[in-house]
Write a structure and sequence with these properties.
Order of helices and strands: HEHEEEEEEEEHE
Strand content: 25-35%
Number of helices: 3
Radius of gyration: 14 Å
Low-confidence stretches: none
Number of strands: 10
Amino acid sequence: MVSDLLSDLVARIKNGYLNGATEIVVPWSRVSEEILKVLVETGYMSGAIRAEKDLKVTLKYEGREPALTDIVRVSKPGSRTYVGYRDIPKVWGGIGRHVVSTPKGVMSDKKAKKLKVGGELICKVW
């Protein structure tokens, strides 16, 4: 059993790309599903489908290179990171994206700034 599902999700995505896998399986949670929806919307993943108690994630490649260079967990169980919409930092000068958990749901940093809502920085992707 995994105690921190979000760290597990990040590790499985990294390991999937390092192994050259086209599909990975992660344990289902509502937050994991929402984060994967954001990654699909922003173009870092091809798709995520719920299958019983798991999520089947299709990793995206551009030619032979992964669409995602790296994914890093920002807010951790012992050290949460909250920001207002004006204070959301840029990732690699605007090339990457933050995934933000807001009162209006999980969304990308770009959408959070547009809706003028802050929240917890879950992870950053580039």
